[in-house]
Amino acid sequence: MTETFRQKGTLPPGFLVPVRDGETDEFFVNLGPQHPATHGALRLVVRLDGETVREVVPHMGYIHRGIEYQAERCSALQSILFSDRFDYLTAHMNNHCVCMAIERALGIGVPERGEYVRVIVDELTRVSSHLIFLGSFGTDLGGTTCFLYAFKMREAITQVFDELCGARLTMNFYRPGGSSADVPESFEGSVRNAVKTVREGMKEWNDFLTGNVIFQERTRGVGILSAERAIALGCSGPVLRGSGVEFDVRRKNPYGIYDRFDFDVPVGSVGDVWDRYMVRVEEIEQSLRIVEQALASFPAGPWRSKERVSWRLPEGSWYAEAETAKGTLGVFLEGTGKSDRPWRIKVRSPSFSNLMALDEMCRGGKVADVVACLGSIDPVIPEVDR
Amino acid sequence: MNALIDLSANNAVGDFVRDVLFPNSPALAWAANGLLGVAALLLFPVFLGAPFLIWMERKVCAHMQARLGPMRHGPHGAVQTIADVVKLVFKEIAPPGGVDRLVYLLAPGIPLTASFLVLAVVPWGANLQVADPEQGVFYVVAVGALGLLGFLVGAWASNNKFALLGAMRAGAQMLSYEISLSVLLLLVMLLSGESSLREIVLSQRGTVLDWWVFKAPVVGPLAFVLYLVSSTAELNRGPFDLIEAEQELTAGYQTEYSGMGFSMFYLAEYVNMTIQAALVSTFFLGGFLPPLVGIAPVDAALAAVPGVVWMVAKTLAIVFVYMWFRWSFPRPRVDQLLALEWKTLLPANLAVFALGMLALAMGWILP
User: Fold this and answer.
1) In chain B, residues 146-165 whose CB comes closer than 8 Å to chain A
2) Distance from CA of A169 to the nearest CA of B (A)
3) Do B248 and A371 touch (CB under 8 A)?
4) Which of A36, A138, A145 sits opposite B246 (nearest CB)?
5) CB–CB of A148 and B66 under 8 A?
């Protein structure tokens, strides 16, 4: 391959850095679409000079299912179902975002109890998604033992969801105006148990991985992304906050009842892999704080606004955004006024934008840093491809 | 104290061959015993040692990861490895296109051969050793380094970029750590004044405090810990398993190997681990000597246990430590690993070596 592109004088598609004159031979390695570290069917073409990475080009689309188009074939209510399949780790939050768009379109309000349920469940989802990040990130760096410890913590949260809606992954629980059912009797107890389990588990986790010398060596100063570049590339969520930009939709553009709770927005200072990791570790604690505050003032009363007869979308377009565990999820909805089917649904997925920063993080690093950087972005490939 | 350790006892099989089968022909008895020794040497680790270690690794790993590990075949999955071996034997060896066939097929045998050659000089008991060359330490260093060749040529021959990166790392990593190991082996050799492995063990006769890990204050414990770290890197085991780093290079040097080719590499890893653990116990933990504590009745009981049991027990304990390492730590990056060797471990080893020599020259430690 080296000879081929030199003879032709062209590079494979996507590569921008010009070929250097001189002795060194560069070569291309495919990490993925079948590779232990790519978190799904993502193909990274890595341009290497020995072990040093010159450029990384991500190739997406291996799990493109046309979710947006499929959702346009269904009624707005049915389209909630598809949002479970964007980022399957934060299904509740995706549901929430789609529901908010529909609520704005139809002018539906959400009762107090419904909003509280959404906050509690959303924050637990964030914790559960971050726990998966912790587990898989440890594994990416070669510490395979971490994985199940994160899953053990997450199991307590999954139990809550199991009792809530019978599902453990694709929840499909929220509806415009509230949720599909009221929370069960055991809800508050299970949530308290989950909070306790995660708190205790995170102590053990920090002793085991966060404080590890090799782990810190592998993450500090690796994959630095400056605040300016992070904004320019459209990053959001922990990737943006890791670079030191204090942007959180819950704080800057509060939706639901997030303006009532007291929580911090953790930010990094350097923008390296370590900062992105620590932002997530801190966010777990902040989310638990929100859950506790919400539980303390959990109101009784109706959990869903009155059932509607007609779901016909009026003419116009609406946009809702939410802070999911991966970043800012945006749902754009356009109705024609003739049908309950949206004319257009467009999703702004955080993983897609965050993935664009991968090339900049990896340049000049080693092969192992590509895996660390990719892990620190925490992309969910079905959300990238949709 | 030393009277408790009986060095004259021969092994039962050897006596049987000598006294019962060939009482009149020492030459035939010698030849038969030699063949038996080589056969035992090959069969024991392949059919008993490695499967047990692989099962042990899976169990240790599983329990550290809050899992159970293999549970289906045999009690607690005891014969799972046998089932895996049978599967691997029947698997097709599928060389990809553009492979240097001869080298590709020969390479998996090289690390295994090197391992067996080292195994020949490991003293499992006072008289349980295939060969005891006068220059045992040098032999171990020289022959042990051959294994690297198998990883290098196997990866280069298999026409795969992941394997190529793995081979690159193997060359850099194993050669670097070879130096550290050699310095530490040299240290023990000079401290004990012996270069035969059996004699090195015998130089540690006495109580536990006469083992080289304790006998030489400061130098002994330091050398022991440094040797454990360096040998983990030399073994290519986690956290220093960079040459096969799953998350980066899928399977590194053995990416294109399947069936028996893969299992030979795999087997070599476990035989190598046994050897390094056996060397640690030979050089630092008194090898086949019982851990006497200096209390007469206890010592008598401890000394009654055959030396081979102590040797295997110590080896397994060190193997467990290797597994513990592997399943606890994340993996460093390749440049960090080499920096660790050249900037930290090697200077530290040389300092310990110099300290040991100084202590020896000043007569602080008696060989």
Assistant:
1) 161-162, 165
2) 22
3) yes
4) A36
5) yes
How many CB pairs (< 8 A) connect A and B? 84
A145 Cβ under 8 Å from any chain B Cβ: yes
- Rounded to whole angstroms, the Cα distance separating A127 from A133 reads 10
Chain A stretch 22-51, residues whose beta carbon is closer than 8 A to a beta carbon of chain B? 27, 29, 35-37, 48, 50-51
Q: Are the CB atoms for A321 and A248 separated by under 8 Å?
A: no
- In DSSP terms, A179 is beta-bridged to A174
Q: Are A113 and A302 in contact (CB under 8 A)?
A: yes
pLDDT at A127 over 90: yes
Cα Rg for chain A, rounded, in angstroms? 22
Averaged over B286-292, what is the pLDDT? 82
Average pLDDT value for chain A: 86
Q: What is the largest CA-CA distance in chain A?
A: 74
> How far is it, in rounded angstroms, from Cα A357 to Cα A374?
10
Which residues does chain B have within 8 Å of residue A51's beta carbon, measured at their own beta carbons? 165, 168-169, 334-335
More confidently predicted of A3 and A50: A50
List of domains in chain A: 2-59 (no CATH), 67-385 (1.10.645.10)
Whether chain A has a CB inside 8 Å of the CB on B239: the answer is yes
Residues 6 or more apart whose CB falls under 8 angstroms from that of B304 comprise: none
- Answer positive or negative: Cα dihedral of B103, B105, B111, B115: negative
Whether ipTM exceeds 0.95: no
Residue type, position A32, single letter: G
- With tokens 């490991």, the residue in question is B122
Give DSSP secondary structure letters for B201-221.
Answer: HHTT-SBGGGSHHHHSTTHHH
- A143 part of contact set with chain B, CB < 8 Å: yes
Two structure tokens written together for A249? 């939709």
Q: Which two structure tokens, joined as six digits, stand for A380?
A: 């969910």
Q: How far apart are CA B90 and CA B243, in angstroms?
A: 27
Taking contacts as CB-CB distances below 8 angstroms, the residues of chain A near B64 are: 145
Q: What is the mean pLDDT of chain B?
A: 82
Using the beta-carbon criterion (under 8 Å), do B248 and A367 form an inter-chain contact?
A: yes
> Please, which residues bridge with residue A336 across strands?
A315
Upper half-sphere CA count for residue A204 (Cβ side, 13 Å): 13
Cβ atoms of B248 and A368 closer than 8 Å: yes
Chain A positions touching B245 (Cβ under 8 A) are: 142, 368
- The residues pairing with A317 across neighbouring beta strands, listed in sequence order, are A334
- Looking up tokens 């799904």 gives A40
Distance from C-alpha of B241 to C-alpha of B194, rounded to nearest angstrom: 33
Q: Which two tokens stand for residue A371?
A: 């895996």
Distance CA B267, CA B175 (A): 21
What is d(CA A380, CA A352) in angstroms, rounded to the nearest whole number? 9
